[in-house]
Design brief:
- The protein is mostly beta strands.
- 5% of the residues lie in helices and 51% in strands.
- It is built from 6 helices and 43 strands.
- The strands form 10 sheets. The chain has a 22-stranded antiparallel beta barrel. It has a 5-stranded mixed sheet with strand order 3-8-9-6-7. A two-stranded antiparallel ribbon has the order 1-2.
- β4 and β5 (103-108) form a beta hairpin.
Length: 819
């Protein structure tokens, strides 16, 4: 078997890595490595080599002096990974919050503010890449269907030198299998599954690799996945005291109403112009239709909710990429360009908000029809339309990896736009008799029945120049230094808020403003009634990296890394311009790690200790009129350790484990003044919203997993059994103490996955069980509005606290055929 390109220090050490829960309970940014094929290698116990490109070079994972988790093709299949949540649970350093499919916010090593992922809020702290192209969006990480994927790489810690803005805490890279001119190949897989408390689903997948000539090949992938629902929308009622009415959801009662249909494909073309130059254009497209709501309300029942208006999501996108690899003399030249387009249409029931504010403050008294008759059902619903575009270009040059002194240098440019419509509709809404002054139209002009409108365009621009150099001081000792100079320019333009009449009567100053004072003369935007938002913020800076690596021999190394990362600043939407733009935040990391292979390469033991200082981190919270405000909060610190172990005990028995411990805390009291501005320093007489030492949101103290796999011959087939356990401790859903008190803690939980199967020639069959004991783990916990209003509950109104659960017990059967 041809050996992949490795570092010169890999020597005789073919090595891989697995996401493994070390029995020491120390946890690392691990890597799930493929098993070597025992029958093909004569019963070897050598762990198969995994090649990664995290450093912009192809290197053996075990020789790269940084924390990387790499789940390769075979391991992805063994763990039955088809979507985002499937692989994230096997990444000890990674946590996330989610509201629906493809609306996921990723956190690495506890760098988490627990924000609300608002469309006008901060960029993510974790960058996401599809091959060489960034696909990070403000609305969170895409739920890319995982099939025919070479590996999922996770780079823990700041990646500011080579990866830039949204890689402050780390980077997730989805690397696809590339076309090959070596010969024709293909496969298809068919999976059927049943979800406890729910229905039946399926997955259909296939690919073909076709050499067209001796220097041109194409690879085509297609998939169709149906995920059965398991949340029931049960009958419920809600009173509106001010209208004297009670509504019900009888017309929307439905079992298993949160089903998802995802289909799409990928096409890649590889053209070898000559022995030095290769062009690889690719395109991937995905269409996902999700129905219902993905959380349940414990006050209503297990896996049950009361929803009164439609909930749905239609998410489709495509990513086109072009990679050119070549040589200029001894130097490797790479160009990577990409264009990404996403359409997202959503419908969201906002009845909880309407009912809570009516009960708390007589919300419904002002909503009447055009004749002034109070509405019997003043519930709101949100009609959302999001349109994303992203273009990126990177050009870099690298000297030979075998040189004693070697460099990588490049230029990067990215521009992403996000057109946002959030239309808050009250059916039948027309006017109101406000304080007995007579009927006054309150809907946003040009938008009948619209109470609140967001119609704006966001543009985020990022340019950078970067370089990294390594020098072998001795054959064992290497020093690396890197710097990235960046410039960002981010803006918001358009309209947000209420109508002018609403502002005049209620003094909200959010929208037109009283007497239209917020509207800017002579400006317009699409269908917005006026322009009250035209803001921009820009800045420049730099990030750094220094690494010192010592290799005891070709199979063992230790390293120390100092690295920094950043997240760009942005614009605050606020009436009257009282709150300034928020500034970039920074993360500084000090990491001491090791990568070792033992017992003739049958045991890999890796790990790292780290101290990460998060300065002036961007924090999003609800201000006046429940409008998201972002400010630079006091600093936080994460002390952690991670470790991974993979041991191929015999040619047929492998145990892998990994875990991560993070002590992520605020380093100062968190408080604001009377105007909502964050205080940097002593709080004085201002109330402490979160005390020094407060655990950061969505960060378990410990998260880990362990997997055991045994292969054996059975009736001429290669059989196997596998068991995996994933565990994490309790987490908080917010930073502020009051929010945590209102929401409650997300308790720790463990899930167990089991599988039994066999392979023969090119055929395979496997029976698998996910979440075998139907553990109701809590992935997220939230309310649809300010927790002090929505969380308490009122007479006839249960607390509006929702839990996003782990998927219930799922049993599946997969049949596969390669050719």
């Amino acid at each position: 078997m041809k050996k992949a390109c490795c570092s010169k220090y890999a020597g005789v050490a073919p090595a891989g890595l697995a996401v493994l829960l070390a029995t020491t309970c120390l946890t690392a940014g691990p890597a799930l490595a493929a098993e070597a094929n025992a029958s093909a290698s004569g019963g070897t116990t050598v762990i198969g080599e995994v090649v990664v490109t995290a450093t912009k070079r192809s290197e053996n994972l075990q020789s790269v002096p940084m924390s990387i988790t790499a789940i390769d093709t075979r391991k992805l299949e063994e763990l039955h990974v088809t979507e985002f949540q499937d692989y994230v649970k096997f990444l000890p350093a990674v946590t996330f919050q989610t509201f629906a499919p493809s609306q996921n916010t990723i956190y690495i090593r506890g760098v988490s503010d627990g924000g609300n992922a608002n469309h006008s809020g901060p960029q993510p702290s974790v960058g996401t890449y599809l091959d060489e192209q960034p696909i990070t969006t403000i609305n969170g990480a895409l739920d890319v269907h995982i099939y025919d994927i070479a590996r999922v790489e996770v780079l823990e810690g700041p990646q500011g030198t080579l990866y830039g803005a949204s890689s402050e805490a780390g980077t997730v890279r989805i690397i696809t299998n590339k076309p090959s001119t070596a010969g024709f190949s293909g496969a298809f897989d068919v999976t059927g599954n049943w979800v406890d408390h729910g229905g039946e689903g399926y997955v259909l997948e296939g690919f073909v690799n076709v050499p067209i000539t001796n220097n041109i090949a194409v690879r085509l992938v297609a998939f169709d996945e149906y995920d059965a629902g398991y949340i029931d929308n049960v009958f419920g009622t809600r009173p509106y005291p001010t209208a004297g009415s009670v509504i019900n959801n009888a017309d929307r009662v439905k079992n298993n109403f949160n089903d998802v249909q995802t289909y799409g494909g990928r096409a890649a073309l590889k053209i070898d112009l000559n022995e030095n130059w290769t062009i690889t254009p690719t395109v991937m497209a995905q269409d996902q239709r999700a129905n219902g709501f993905y959380g349940f309300n414990p006050a209503v029942g297990d896996l049950q909710v009361n929803r009164f208006q439609p909930d749905s999501q239609h998410d489709r996108w495509y990513q086109a990429g072009l990679t050119i690899n070549g040589k200029i003399g001894r130097f490797d030249l790479t160009y990577a360009g990409g264009y990404f387009h996403r359409w997202l249409d959503t419908l969201t029931d906002y009845t909880d908000y309407s009912v809570a504010y009516d009960a708390a403050s007589g919300y419904g008294a002002y909503w009447t029809d055009s004749n002034g008759i109070p509405l019997a059902n003043p519930s709101q619903e949100i009609i959302g339309r999001d349109r994303f575009e992203k273009g990126s270009n990177e050009l870099r040059i690298a000297s030979p990896a075998t040189d004693r002194f070697r460099i990588i240098a490049g230029l990067f440019q990215e521009r992403q736009t996000h057109w946002i419509i959030q239309d808050y509709v009250v059916q039948g809404f027309g006017a109101a008799d406000v304080f007995g002054t007579g009927l006054v139209p309150l809907a946003v002009p040009g938008w009948p029945q619209t109470l609140w409108l967001t119609d704006q365009n966001r543009i985020d621009r990022d340019e950078a120049a970067f370089g990294e150099a390594s020098f072998d001081i001795t054959p064992q000792l290497t020093i690396t230094g890197g710097i990235r100079y960046y410039h960002y320019d981010n803006s918001l333009y358009g309209f947000y808020g209420y109508s002018e009449n609403f502002d005049n009567f209620f003094g909200t100053n959010t929208g037109f403003g009283q007497q239209g004072q917020n509207c800017e003369p002579g400006k317009s935007f699409r269908d917005a009634p006026c322009v009250n938002l035209d803001k921009d913020t820009k800045a420049s800076g730099e990030t750094h990296k220094v690494n010192l690596t010592y290799r005891f021999d070709p199979t063992k190394l230790v390293y120390f890394t100092y690295a920094t990362g950043y997240r760009p600043g942005g614009v605050n939407r606020n009436g009257g311009g009282l709150i300034p733009p928020y500034q970039a935040d920074t993360l500084s990391s000090y990491e001491l790690g090791w990568k070792t292979s033992w017992l003739d390469h049958s045991l890999n033991f890796n790990g790292a200790f780290y101290d990460e200082e998060w300065s002036n981190f961007q924090f999003a919270y609800l201000g006046i009129n429940s409008l998201t405000i972002v400010q630079n909060a006091p600093s936080a610190r994460i002390l952690g350790v991670e470790s991974s172990v993979e041991w191929r005990v015999t040619s047929g028995f492998t145990v892998s484990a990994a875990g991560s411990y993070n002590d992520a805390e605020l380093t100062a009291d968190f408080c604001t003044d009377a105007n909502g501005n964050v205080i940097h320093g002593a709080c004085g007489t201002n109330p402490v919203l979160a005390p020094k030492g407060q655990q950061l949101a969505f960060t378990p103290k410990f998260k880990g997993n362990i997997t055991a796999r045994y292969t054996f011959p059975v009736m001429g087939w290669d059989g196997h059994v596998q068991a995996s356990v994933v565990y994490q401790t309790a987490r908080l859903p917010a930073v502020f103490s009051a929010d945590n008190a209102n929401l409650g803690t997300m308790p720790g939980y463990a899930t167990v996955d089991l599988s039994l199967g066999a392979e023969h020639d090119k055929s395979s069959v496997e029976l698998f069980v996910k979440n075998a004991f139907d553990e109701r783990g809590q992935v997220d916990r939230f309310t649809p509005c300010t927790t002090s209003v929505c969380a308490p509950g009122y007479p006839g109104v249960p607390p509006a606290v929702y839990v996003i659960p782990t998927q219930p017990l799922t049993i599946g059967l997969r049949l596969g055929q390669k050719f």
